[in-house]
Amino acid sequence: MKKLFMIGGTMGIGKTTVSQILKRALPNSVFLDGDWCWDASPFQVTSETKAMVLNNICAVLNNFLHCSAYENVLFCWVMHEQAIIDAIVSRLDTANCRVIAVSLLCSEQELVRRLQKDVAAGIRTPDVIERSVRRLPLYRQLDTIKVDTSGKTAAEAAQEIAALEALFI
Q1: Of all helices (H) and strands (E), which one includes residue 100?
Q2: Helix axes 154-165, 15-25, angle to 10 degrees
Q3: Neighbouring residues of 159: CB distance < 8 A, sequence distance ≥ 6
Q4: Are 16 and 32 in contact (CB under 8 A)?
Q5: Which helix (H) or strand (E) holds 104?
Q6: Fewest Cβ atoms closer than 10 Å to its Cβ: which of 49, 64, 78, 121?
């Protein structure tokens, strides 16, 4: 049975890095970062662009789920509201698939440190720190498996998520 790992977390928490490691660690894996489905300049949040990104995400994930070459489908995105997770899952063909929803968490201090490093490297703009910190508590309320990444490397967090895979065979 296929497994769909939905990995959520606030900006800068390590979703993409963890997912890339998982892609190499789990057999027959494929990875979609939700940000790739909405990479625009300028970035615009409207009802039209929100609908478009969900359409893009669901189309690609369904293609991955229908492809016999893949047994593990990895998807990461901010997903700070249960409604976002539910909307995506409701549009996917999960008949032969287990959905494993995970939220990455860390302490506020750790998150700020990670984001400051990204800002200093020119990867992110300074305004992301406040927005990301503000969203952090929302993940504790979701119907997801929580993985605290505080004090862990991305590889350690990925290993913890990979261990979940055995529970869903």
Answers
A1: strand 97-105
A2: 50
A3: 25
A4: no
A5: strand 97-105
A6: 121
Distance CA 44, CA 36 (A): 14
3-state secondary structure of 3: strand
Q: Binning pLDDT at 50, 70 and 90, where does residue 43 land? A: confident
User: C-alpha angle with apex 38: 106 to 5, nearest 5 degrees?
Assistant: 50
pLDDT grade for 164, boundaries at 50, 70 and 90: confident
CATH code of the domain covering residue 141: 3.40.50.300
**How many structural domains are present in the chain?**
1
Decide: residue 140, CB within 10 A, 0-12 exposed, 13-18 middle, 19+ buried. Answer: exposed
Whether residue 144 contacts residue 84, with contact meaning beta carbons closer than 8 Å, is answered with no
Residues 153, 106: Cα–Cα separation, whole Å: 12
Rounded average pLDDT over 129-158: 96
Structural tokens at position 117: 């490093």
Q: Any bridge partners for residue 146, and if so which? A: 103
In whole angstroms, give the CA distance from residue 100 to residue 98.
Answer: 6
- Domain, as residue range, for 127: 2-168
